[in-house]
Design goal:
The chain is mainly α. It has a domain at 15-107. It has seven helices and no strands. Helix 1 (15-27) packs across helix 6, helix 4 crosses helix 6 (92-101) and helix 6 (92-101) crosses helix 7. It is globular and about 40 Å long.
Length: 144
């Protein structure tokens, strides 16, 4: 596998890899990174953690860093910050899941509008009880 990263189409990464990056931020006291942003120093520490703690190819680790950085950047949008403030930390897991496999151009980042719509749809889907959990109802027959 090549170690180069195509920045016009960043490959998807496993959601668990992005979750580990987020876990590092939380463990290092920067759990509000989606609201406050990522400083250059924070990014350097995250890079070191990804290189030492994540397994996988160089290209996959780079993709994790790029996707995490773009995830933080997209939450600078007013609508996404408002959604985060309304939903709280319950929004982090769906956001990571969406950021892991949504098409991404590193130059432009995630589209705030598309990310917001996708995130709201994913949250709505996760909050709905599954169809298999609801017992099927037999139609009632009226006696004549």
């Amino acid at each position: 596998m090549s170690s180069t990263l195509d920045e016009t189409d960043v490959p998807p990464v496993p959601p668990v890899a992005l979750a580990r990056a987020m876990r590092f931020m939380i463990d290092s006291g920067r759990g509000l990174v989606l609201l406050r942003g990522l400083s250059a120093g924070d990014m350097r520490e995250l890079e070191a953690a990804v290189w030492h703690r994540l397994e996988g190819s160089i290209a996959e680790r780079r993709a994790v860093l790029v996707r995490f950085g773009c995830l933080v950047e997209v939450f600078a949008a007013r609508r996404l910050q408002a959604l985060m403030l309304r939903r709280g930390f319950r929004l982090v897991a769906p956001a990571i899941q969406l950021a892991a496999d949504t098409r991404l151009n590193a130059k432009w980042g995630f589209s705030p509008h598309k990310f917001n719509l996708g995130l709201q749809a994913l949250v709505h889907q996760l909050e709905q009880p599954s169809a298999s959990a609801v017992p099927a109802c037999e139609p009632l027959e009226l006696a004549a």
